[in-house]
Every structure is written in C-alpha cells, then in structure tokens.
Amino acid sequence: MLDLMPSLREWQPAVTGRRCAVATVVGAGGSVPRPLGTSMLVSEAGDVLGSLSGGCVEGAVVEAALAAMHDGGTRREFFGYSAEDAFAVGLTCGGELEVHIEPLGTAPGGLRLENLRALAGNGPASALALIRRVDANGGGAVVIPDPANFSMEQSVRQSAELAALLRVPELSTRAAARLLRAAAAQLEPLLRGGRTGLVRLAPPEGCLSGADVPQSAGTGTGTVPDTSPEPITLLVESRLPPARLLIFGANDFGAALLPAAQLLGYHVTLCDARPAFASQARFAGADQVVTAWPHRYLAEEAAAGRIDSRTVACVLTHDPKFDIPLLQTALGLDLAYVGAMGSRRSHRQRVDSLLAAGVSAEDLSRLHSPIGLDLGAVTPAEVAVSITAELVASRSRGAGASVQAASLKDGTGPLHGAGPIHTGTTQNVNTAQHQETPWT
Fold this sequence. Notes:
- By secondary structure, the chain is α/β, with parallel strands linked by helices.
- Helices cover 31% and strands 19% of the residues.
- The strands form 3 sheets. A 6-stranded parallel sheet has the order 12-11-10-13-14-15, sandwiched between helices. A 5-stranded antiparallel sheet has the order 3-2-1-5-4, with helices on one face. It has a 5-stranded mixed sheet with strand order 7-6-9-8-16.
C-alpha cells in the first residue's frame, strides 16, 4: 500500500472522491510476481492503480473489488494454477496468492480514502507505517508516524487506535491486556525494522468460530473452508528513511557504484579526502559529497547517531593509508555490510595490518574483501553490478533467506523462498500447503 502513495495524489478517482476498494496480497506460495503487502486500488468505475500479479489475476480481482463495494464487506480470494482448466483464473507461474479485499469507507477506525490521501503527502523518504486488520472478522487501519521508535510500552499505554483495531473494548480486562502485549511484542520488530509482514494472534475470548465466519463468494479459484477459530491477522507495512550507503573513494569505481546503489534505494554519500577528486562533476548525483579523511568522517557520523545497523560501507580507495584506519573504524561499528576493493594479495596484506592494529578475527570475518560477487567483473560498471549483487544477497541472508549466488536457470524449486509468519504464542494458523513469502 505504501508504494502506491506517491501516485495516489494524481489518481483521478482519489482526487474526485469516488468509492474505491483496496486489494492486497496477504499470502503467497511458490513463485509469485509480487511480494506480501503488494496492493492495488480499484474504483467504482473499474479504474485501477497498481498491480498484484502483472496481469494474471487482475481482472478477477477487479470483479471481486466491485462486488465488495456493492455489498460493503471485506473478502478474501485465493488464486493458484489450475492444470485441469486452462481457462481458470490463476497464476501461470504456478504460485498461489491470497488476496484481501476491503472497501474504503467512512466508519471510525476504518480504512478511508482521505486517510490514504493524507499519507500520500508524506514523501517517499519519510518514515511511516500502516497496520491493517485483514482477517475475516475485522477491517480498518492504524497509522504509525514514527515506526523506528515504536515500543511495546508506548503502544500498550497510548495506542487507543490499536486497541480499537483489535476490538479490545469487547474483551475482559485480562484478555485485553494479554492481547495488546502479544500484538505489541510482534509488531515491534517489523515496525522498527522497516519491514512488511503478517502478525497472527490467537483468537481471544468471544471470537467467532470457523463455522460462524462467512466464506467469500468471490471470483478466485475457490476458498479454503476453515473450521478452526479465526485468528486476528494484522498486515504491517513499515517504511524507514532510506538506509545509507557510504562510498569511500572518488574514482571510476565509485562513480559507477553511485547510481547503481541509488537504484536499490540507498541514500548515497561519497567521501574522499582529496578535494580535487571529490569535486568532480561526475559525483554531483550523490545525495551527499564529503571531503574529509574517511575514518574521521565515519567516526563522526557514528558519534552523531547518523549511522545504524542498515548502513553499508564500501571502501574503494585501494590505498592502505585510507583503508586500514577506515576499516578498523567500520568493523568496530554495527553495520549491515563492510566491503573493500582490492586483489587477494591486497586482501591478505590488509588482514595482517588490521590484525596488527587490534581488530579481532571475529570482526574481520564480517569484512567482504575482495568486495562483490564473483561475476567475472572487470570494468567499473561490471564491478558496480558485482557489489550491488552482493548487497542484495547479504540483505536476503540477513532476512533469514537461504541465498546462493548461482544462475536461476541451474536451480529448481520456487524462485522466491518462504519464511515464517509472526504468530501468537498459542497458535500458528496456516492454510494447508500455504506459506507467506519473506517480507523484507
């Protein structure tokens, strides 16, 4: 949903206030084109903003969204590949999608178009989170303006909106406190980590049983009947300001890496101690250009709180007088990635120097040197691809995915791995043979 916000301000159905519904991917299995949390808006006239599958199921989703606007209720649709019926609505890639559809309304606590228009006023680089209830028993949304500082204590004490989303007023005091604590504990890592994911909570006292929950009568490939109690399901979308990527070295390789890193969404800083190098016009596209000794600059940024665990440091100076003190500083910080360019001979010399400077073997194990994946890269542009490929692989490993740098044509199985969903301590509710994709 957050990805649609920049386009929402100019989307005519939103500008003119037409009735709309939002369709969101809340579950995916196998190979699917779009990840968990991908949303599509549908107006009462059939206008569409966004895409869920690249064209496989959009027509059926539009029909279901129009039906939801007509009857005013939320619904869930399931789409998969049907080998028996070539004309069935489904995914030709063989994956499975679970789509939640909710009309935008005016009810208190509900998901409203004016709320989305207000969110559209936030720039794409601003911190923002949206928590939506996507189970069969509820709807609505809560906006978290500062997800990086969300805490369990704060949410339990201050979030009346979250309590309303969970229908806490309908529960006993003890059940309400237990539900809020369970929700906040699972929401916190997603919100503070800037991730998207599902939180499923064991149904509280008084929740509808599966027999009482109406099943969707939509246009997908069918619904999955469930006789177990319906869990409370929250979809969390959290966006933090862009992570920083620091390029040390104003050279050909730094110039090639700069735009490549920006394509991955990083806020890119180029740092070099030599003014004649850093001031070149080819580095003007950087978000920030700094002329300073690299290790001093990095230490100052860390002391000022402008470095965090998402920060990437790429050391491309290839000069020991810059590299050694810089790497010694970088490896002493909690950074997402530290890489250094150079030959294997340079790497061995670098390791010896860092060990002599007091860097531990454990810290050295975090150093990506020589930097990048082994793609046979030679030119600066090719090296930039190699570095960014390793960054993507490193981020995926950090999210718990099993990543191997191999060609997709040589592999088997789904293109997108599956990860666990966040659940309450007493129940993990999954549709049979259905998994959610990773949400990072």
